[in-house]
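Renewal narrative, Specific Aim 1. Our central claim is that a sequence can be written position by position from structural information alone. The example that follows is taken directly from our test logs and has not been curated for this report. It begins with the structure tokens describing the chain, in the order in which they were read.
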């Protein structure tokens, strides 16, 4: 398949700039993946589509306030850094802008001296490896000086940092939010449990590769970024019991989906483990675990719309996106949601 097969025309005004309040009042498009039928609901109606004995698998990764602004100690120049992944104790791989001001050996001050950092080397991709120093705990300091790394298509400032976190976020480490989970409230989670639906947790720390466009014409030639995951033994047992008892395993978000399918692809089943995944799911892939998927609307020609097309059928998905545009759904991170069953 060609990357251009996954293009759709999206008016800019449909890109959501701010989250809906309350969280579960976003719109929900429900799609039957067998016949492509569509229903228009609100997210709180998700209860009507979950059955006793089903299980929801959610990604409990928590977003780092990974966008920090440094002042170059030698010249006073301002440089923006984005923390991508930890590569050592207080040492991080980062994106820098402008990169030419962050050469090896350059030192920077952050948050009026609360933290300092020195560029130790530059990766093949041009990312800067920075060793940080601070008197307080690194993450506590980061919480004081950092901003949420909102995607480039969101231009409005986020008033409340917690609105770019899920209500069940727990494991700090993502450079972007697992956005399908942003629609859940604590109250809705309780109602779901009360209905007899089990909730299992996985952790996949979302990297910025999520937002990187596919630059090759032939989908087969695209190389995925790698992300760290962890599946607790308790979650693996829940999935096994759910399947055995005839329930459905429904992933909340493409990150939860990729975690489950990665582990099942490697071990033949979901088991308690951790590791790195660069699984690329696109049409033709045979799903090993998933029975349902809750996910936001994704960028044209992205790996995420390819994953959704693999699960729900290419024609179904492209038609559904056309309808969503016509019905003026809100798109991307702070936008509305799909439930595919």
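The sequence written for that structure reads:
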């Amino acid at each position: 398949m060609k990357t251009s097969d996954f293009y759709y025309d999206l008016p800019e005004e449909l890109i959501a700039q701010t989250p809906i309040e309350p969280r579960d009042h976003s719109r929900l498009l429900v799609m039957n993946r067998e016949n492509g039928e569509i229903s228009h609901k609100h997210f709180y109606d998700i209860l009507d589509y979950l059955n006793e004995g089903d299980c929801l698998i959610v990604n409990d990764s928590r977003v780092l306030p990974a966008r920090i602004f440094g002042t170059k100690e030698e010249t006073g120049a301002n440089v923006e850094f984005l923390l991508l992944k930890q590569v050592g104790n207080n040492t991080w791989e980062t994106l820098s802008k402008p990169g030419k001001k962050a050469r090896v050996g350059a030192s920077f001050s952050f948050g009026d001296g609360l933290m300092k950092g020195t560029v130790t080397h530059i990766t093949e991709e041009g990312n800067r490896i920075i060793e940080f120093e601070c008197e307080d705990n690194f993450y506590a300091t980061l919480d004081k000086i950092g901003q949420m790394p909102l995607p480039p298509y969101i231009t409005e400032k986020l008033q409340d940092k917690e609105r770019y976190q899920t209500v069940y976020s727990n494991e700090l480490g993502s450079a972007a939010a697992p956005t399908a989970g942003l629609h859940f409230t604590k109250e809705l989670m309780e109602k779901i449990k009360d209905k007899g639906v089990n909730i299992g947790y996985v952790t996949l720390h979302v990297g910025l590769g999520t937002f990187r466009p596919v630059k090759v014409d032939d989908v087969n030639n695209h190389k995925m970024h790698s992300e760290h995951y962890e599946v607790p033994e308790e979650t693996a047992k829940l999935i096994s019991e759910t399947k055995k008892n005839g329930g459905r395993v429904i992933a909340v978000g493409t990150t939860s989906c990729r975690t489950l399918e990665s582990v099942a692809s490697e071990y033949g089943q979901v088991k308690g483990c951790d590791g790195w995944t660069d699984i690329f799911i696109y049409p033709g892939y045979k799903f090993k675990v998933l029975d349902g998927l809750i996910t936001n609307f994704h960028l044209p020609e992205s790996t995420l719309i390819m994953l959704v097309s693999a699960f729900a059928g290419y024609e179904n998905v492209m038609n559904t996106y056309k309808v969503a545009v016509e019905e003026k759904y809100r798109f991307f991170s702070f936008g509305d949601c799909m439930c595919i069953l």
